[in-house]
Amino acid sequence: MNLSIVILNYRTFELTRDTVNSVLSYSYPFSYEIIVVDNASGDDSLMKLQDYFKDKVKFIESKENNGFAAGNNLALRQVKSDYVLLLNSDTVVWENTLENVYSYMEQHTDVGACGCRVRLESGELDKACKRTFPNVKNSFFRLFHIPNKSQDDNYNLTDLPDDEVYEIDCLTGAFMFIRDRALEDAGLLDETFFMYGEDIDLCYRIKEAGWKIVYYGKNSITHFKGASSKKQKNKLIYEFYHAMYIYYKKHHAEESSFIVNIVVYFGISVLCILKLFLNLFK
User: Strand 175-179 and strand 111-120: pairing?
Assistant: First the structure.
């Protein structure tokens, strides 16, 4: 098998159905399988998906929801393909995207993971699809919405074109096309991250293992991003800031001074509390 496409479903029958159909709409010059992991939805979405797709899709049912990373890992432990694609259940794949990204990976054997241009429903770029790794400085600029065009601290790489191909640090978990050998070297998704941050952490480990990560802006998907909802659930807000804490502690705390660590942890906590408070009024 050349490619395994892993999609995590959680109570999103219509969205997951449309994502799978967008893949099935085209023919490809490679063999592939689609694996849908149901993350303990507790509704009828899994049953409806199984009835709709029948033998076209493989299904894995998780008995409990341990988060995005854990759900995807259920499938990653089983796949035996040359590549795996982590694809969000709220995306639509455009024509030629999978074919061209696959071809690029075949031609560039030093690339461990590749992402494409990710467009929001509005047509604008989902800035998470091409990023540098977060650090104290660029995170400060981003969290407090301070304009910054420094090449060293431009987290979302807004100074680089959206429709070209180049090496970056970090992709979005909505579309991560990963070489099997790179995943073997880096390891699976870190299940300490319940939601958010696991994509950044995996990219960090892939690059640490000596592989390149590339943004392929010539082809696209559409991402109907959950952040477009007017009111966020408090758990999602908490997990967003908790992921910051986990990532910083895992990759930066040891190399930073005690004072810096205290300031960072305090800042994350204050921002989380402030966001939860403001969410009450949305």
Answer: antiparallel
Query: For the segment 33-57, what is each residue's pLDDT rounded down to a tens digit?
Result: 999 999 999 999 999 999 999 999 9
Question: Token digits for 225?
Answer: 């991003």
> 249: which 2 tokens?
């502690």
Q: To the nearest 10°, the Cα dihedral for 39, 43, 47, 49?
A: -70
CA 261/CA 263 separation, integer angstroms = 5
Cβ neighbours for 235, distance < 8 A, ≥ 6 positions apart: none
CA dist 66 and 7 (Å) reads 15
CB atoms within 10 A of CB 133: 17
- Locus of tokens 């305090």: 266
User: Which of 17-21, 40-44, 102-106, 224-228 comes out lowest in average pLDDT?
Assistant: 224-228
199 CB neighbour count, 10 Å cutoff: 25
Domain ranges of the chain: 3-228, 234-279
Count how many Cα atoms sit within 13 Å of the Cα of residue 265 in the half-sphere of its side chain.
12
State the Cα angle at 210 between 104 and 241, rounded to 5°.
95
- For residues 153 and 143, give the distance between their C-alpha atoms in angstroms, rounded to a whole number: 13
Q: Read off the pLDDT of residues 116-139 as tens digits, 9 standing for 90 and up.
A: 999 999 999 999 999 998 776 666
CA-based R_g, the chain, Å = 19
List of E strands, the chain: 3-9, 32-39, 58-62, 83-87, 91-93, 111-120, 165-168, 175-179, 212-223
φ, ψ at 50 (rounded to 5°): -60, -40
- Write down the CATH number for the domain with range 3-228: 3.90.550.10
Provide the 8-state DSSP code for 216: E
Locate 71 and state its tokens: 């759900």
